[in-house]
Write a structure and sequence with these properties.
The protein is an alpha+beta fold. It has one domain. 37% of the residues lie in helices and 20% in strands. Strands 1-2 form a two-stranded parallel ribbon. Bound molecules: flavin-adenine dinucleotide. The site of flavin-adenine dinucleotide (FAD) has 15 residues, from helix 1 and helix 2.
């Protein structure tokens, strides 16, 4: 099985992790347009608030 996931962060990496748990042999590729595969979006207000 070959799985291509567009977009990482929460949903994409969750889908990839679930797919890997379901199949150890699946070929899983994630495309993410940003340089970081995941970051804490929820922490953004604290970062911007310099807390
Ligand atoms: C300020 C703020 C505070 C939040 N606080 C909380 C909280 O306290 N608790 C909580 O549960 N949730 C919170 N959330 C919501 C939570 O962050 C989001 O629900 C979560 O990030 C959604 O993840 P996602 O993977 O669905 O989408 P996204 O985070 O939007 O990720 C989608 C990814 O896909 C990539 N992408 C899009 N199009 C393409 C393409 N064509 N090719 C390649 N890559 C592509 C994007 O670059 C992006 O990285 C908060 C969100 C914000 C903005």
């Amino acid at each position: 099985m070959k799985l291509v996931i567009i977009g990482a962060v929460a949903a994409g990496t969750s889908a990839a992790a679930k797919a890997r748990r379901n199949s150890e042999t699946a070929e899983i590729i994630i495309y993410e347009k940003d340089p970081d595969i995941s970051f804490s979006v929820c922490g953004m207000p604290y970062y911007l608030g310099e807390q």
